[in-house]
UniProtKB/TrEMBL annotation:
Catalytic reactions on record: ATP + protein L-histidine = ADP + protein N-phospho-L-histidine
Full protein name: histidine kinase
E.C. no: 2.7.13.3
PAC domain ranges (all copies): 259-312, 400-451
Top enzyme category: transferase
UniProt keyword list: Coiled coil, Kinase, Phosphoprotein, Transferase
Organism in which the protein naturally occurs: Desulfobacca acetoxidans (strain ATCC 700848 / DSM 11109 / ASRB2)
Coiled-coil features, chain-numbered ranges: 18-52, 435-465
Organism lineage string: Bacteria, Pseudomonadati, Thermodesulfobacteriota, Desulfobaccia, Desulfobaccales
Length: 838
């Protein structure tokens, strides 16, 4: 016995019973353990199944929520079993309706949103009554939405436990379908309106399908038209077949990026239709060879007609641009030359073929020799640096104007240019154009015109002053006629020893000086030519040599360069001498009492319009041969301001003198249809050149100043015709003192009446030139008609060349200038009466 216990010896039956009991207990415990294990296993399996179920439910719910459709599940009792949020959102159901799980309540809410709620509810009722039936319907909402509804029975095994409803919002799809439908309709209309049809061809077999528009385009009814590649080739214009075949096969081989070609094909009516064909390979076979080609055929006949019209318009425009007198060129937006007309070819010598399509400012090379921006570039963009290169520049809107000096073909030229942008039909700038005009001649012409206008103003001034001077001289000479005539008569009535004689002689001398002054005024007015004959200008100078030498300063040396055998000039010798004397005296005074040289030259020269236009008194003088007289001095010269006024009457730079010397020269030259040129340089002297028309005819010999020997007066009757009473009064006295009987007339009409009445008794007529009612010229003509044998002496303060020449051609017996002395009157009467006797 262990542990202090006493060992007890039990009987065998007890021991066996205990063992059996122990075994049973152990068996029970083992069974309980197995039950526990089975319980644990079952519990674990249930838990796993629950988890799997939850996972499945979760997956189903996630799937339900992730679908784009709204899902609703209704059991057979009409209760909402399940739904997803998409359904609630699509149908806009309140939470309380959904949470009620009442399908009838939900249907009432849903039907309120539909266009046809009764139809909707009726169909739902039918489907509930037919649980096995499936249905696909379209629901249209009041707000424009459209749902597609699908429903079918819900099965649990073979048993129907409810109905599943699926709703899909197809609003956008329907709209897209409608848009697509409209687009297809528009495409069809567009293809029809654009005369365009499509084709679908099997490039391996040649079989083809075409649109109705394509058939109609060719004039066929679509249902009766069939197409193949061979038929298409047969319709092609013979001239286009090779080009079409080349382009088609090149595209199929991949040598061209696209198939695009224009050709003509024959329509049903036999006309030729211009067609634009475009296509693309859309299908290849297993070997990679093209099988199917889609494309379009477009009727471009109208475009071709427009293009031809455009080409014709461009040809006409090109001809018009070439016809324009202004040089013109144009560039595109990139600066490439697109127009270069014929005028600019002629201006620059550069042909269009050599410069068109050039860029980089190539258009400036002919003008400046370099590439540089020009006015045309300013039309596209402002650039102050370019503007500085022009003499003148102006901008008005988008138009620019400028002037520039350039060298063209080796000559300096002044160019005027105008530039502006070029626009397309939308108003976008696509380039610029510049027109150029050579205004060199115009500028010169304007300068010449300015000079001419200045000369015209000078001529008008001279003319006005001349008219004034001539009028004053005429009236003053008539007054002097009375003074001189009466002084002469007074001397005749007095004894030579009378103390009044010296006073009367002084009156006569003063009157003569006044008459000389009037003659200078008449010379300035151009109305002082009284005795015009033909003279050799060199001979007149030689005759005056001694007089000229004593008239100049003792410090001046006079040189002569006189031409021999000069053509004659028609002139008044006295006035020629006055010209020479005035110019010589003027040259002497220009030396300012210093040593110097005066040169007097004569000669002949041919003068053109340009040379004559640069002279004074260029009154459209005729080109031709002129005899010239030059007087040059070595004085200080004259400045421009003085030169502008040297011919003004009463203008002088000297302390003494009346200032009529050069003014008289100008008037005399003008009266002789000549011209004056003045050249002067500071410190190099001045040269006056007188030009007088040369007489080329030799029908008349040149004359000298020889006169007929006067015949002693033997009395007779003189008809004195003058409108001035004072002249008539003194004239009567002077004629009577010479032993003549006198008849008087105040005008030409009275004179004719006297000649008709007493013509046989009249020995001579002293006729005034200027009278009222009937002037001297008309009176002279009518007198000659009445009595051609009566000598007529013309009397006037001035005269004009044409009138004098006319009188000479008509047989004028003589001329006497007012105021005249008794001695001069005796001489002219003696000459006239001598001519009558001869």
């Amino acid at each position: 016995m262990d542990n202090g216990k006493e060992d007890i010896d039990y009987p065998g039956e007890i021991i066996e019973a205990v063992d059996r009991e122990e075994q049973e207990r152990r068996s029970i415990q083992e069974y309980i353990f197995q039950l526990e294990e089975a319980k644990d296993t079952a519990t674990e399996q249930v838990k796993t199944q629950e988890e799997n179920l939850q996972e499945t439910v979760s997956l189903l719910q996630a799937t339900l929520e992730s679908t784009a459709d709204g899902i609703l599940v209704i059991d057979l009792a009409g209760r909402i079993v399940s739904y997803n949020q998409k359904f609630a959102k699509m149908w806009r159901l309140p939470d309380e309706v959904l949470k009620s799980h009442d399908d009838a309540r939900a249907l009432g809410w849903l039907s309120q949103q539909l266009k046809n709620p009764q139809v909707f509810l009726h169909r739902v009722k039918e489907l509930y009554e037919r649980p096995h039936e499936q249905s696909l319907d379209i629901l249209e909402f009041i707000d424009g939405r459209i749902f597609e509804r699908f429903t079918q029975a819900q099965y649990l095994g073979d048993r129907i436990v409810g109905r599943v409803w699926s709703f899909r919002d197809i609003t956008e799809r329907r709209r897209a379908e409608e848009v697509l439908k409209q687009s297809e309709q528009r495409l069809k209309l567009a293809l029809s309106a654009a005369n365009r049809g499509w084709y679908d061809v099997n490039v391996q077999t040649g079989e083809a399908m075409v649109s109705e528009e394509y058939a109609r385009m060719l004039g066929y009814e679509p249902e009766k038209f069939s197409e193949t590649a061979d038929k298409c080739i047969a319709r092609l214009h013979p001239d286009d077949r090779e080009a079409v075949a080349t382009a088609y096969h090149a595209y199929l081989k991949g040598e061209l990026p696209e198939y695009r070609i224009e050709f003509r094909q024959q329509t049903k009516s036999g006309d030729w239709l211009w067609t634009l064909s475009m296509g693309s390979i859309v299908e290849w076979d297993a070997d990679g060879k093209p099988r199917r080609m889609l494309g379009t055929h477009t009727d471009i006949s109208q475009r071709k007609r427009v293009e031809e019209a455009l080409r014709e318009s461009e040809r006409q425009l090109a001809q018009l641009i070439d016809f324009l007198p202004d040089a013109m060129f144009a560039i595109d937006r990139q600066g490439k030359i697109i127009i270069w007309n014929r005028a600019i070819e002629e201006m620059t010598g550069v042909k269009a073929d050599s410069i068109l399509n050039e860029d980089g400012h190539a258009y400036t090379i002919p003008f400046y020799g370099i590439r540089r921006p020009a006015l045309i570039d300013l039309a596209l963009a402002n650039d102050p640096d370019i503007e500085k290169k022009y003499l003148f520049i102006k901008r008005e809107g988008d138009i620019l104007e400028a002037e520039a000096e350039v060298i063209l073909k080796g000559e300096n030229r002044l160019l005027y240019a105008k530039a502006r942008p070029l626009y397309d039909s939308q108003g976008n700038v696509i380039g610029a154009v510049e027109a150029i005009r050579d205004i060199t001649e115009r500028q010169q012409a304007e300068e010449e015109r300015a000079k001419l206008e200045a000369r015209m103003r000078e001529v008008q001034k001279l003319e006005s002053l001349g008219v004034l001077a001539g009028g004053i001289a005429h009236d003053f000479n008539n007054l002097l006629m009375g003074i001189m005539g009466n002084a002469d008569l007074a001397q005749l009535s007095l004894s030579p020893a009378s103390p009044a004689i010296p006073y009367l002689q002084e009156i006569t001398r003063a009157s003569q000086r006044a008459a000389d002054l009037c003659n200078q005024m008449l010379a300035y007015s151009g109305k002082g030519r009284f005795l015009v004959r033909r003279y050799n200008l060199s001979e007149i100078v030689r005759e005056m040599a001694r007089m000229l030498e004593v008239s100049i300063s003792k410090k001046a040396m006079l040189n002569y360069r006189l031409a021999d055998a000069l053509p004659a000039v028609e002139a008044d010798a006295t006035q020629l001498r006055q010209i020479i004397m005035n110019l010589i005296i003027n040259a002497s005074e220009a030396l300012n009492d210093q040593n110097g040289v005066i040169t007097l030259s004569t000669g002949v020269m041919d003068c053109d319009r340009r040379y004559l236009s640069e002279s004074y008194l260029d009154d459209n003088l005729a080109e031709g041969r002129y005899v010239f007289l030059k007087v040059s001095d070595s004085g200080a010269g004259i400045d421009e301001e003085t030169r502008q006024r040297i011919f003004d009457p009463f203008f002088t730079t000297k302390f003494t003198g009346r200032g009529l010397g050069l003014a008289a020269v100008l008037g005399i030259v003008r009266g002789h249809r000549g011209a004056i040129r003045v050249g002067s340089e500071p410190d190099r002297g001045t040269t006056f050149t007188i030009l007088l028309p040369a007489v080329l005819s030799s029908r008349e010999e040149m004359t000298t100043d020889a006169v007929l020997c006067p015949t002693p007066l033997q009395g007779g009757t003189v008809l004195l015709v003058d409108d001035d009473p004072g002249v008539r009064q003194v004239g009567v006295r002077m004629l009577r003192s010479l032993g003549f009987s006198v008849l008087t007339a105040a005008d030409g009409q009275q004179a004719l009446e006297l000649v008709q009445a007493q013509g046989d008794d009249i020995d001579c007529v002293l006729l005034d030139l200027t009278m009222p009612r009937m002037g001297g010229e008309e009176t002279f003509v009518k007198l000659r008609a009445l009595r051609s044998n009566i000598p007529v002496i013309l009397s006037s303060s001035y005269n004009e060349q044409d009138v004098v020449q006319h009188f000479y051609r008509g047989g004028l017996a003589g001329f006497i200038q007012k105021p005249y002395s008794l001695t001069k009157l005796r001489e002219i009467l003696s000459e006239a009466l001598s001519m009558r006797k001869h």
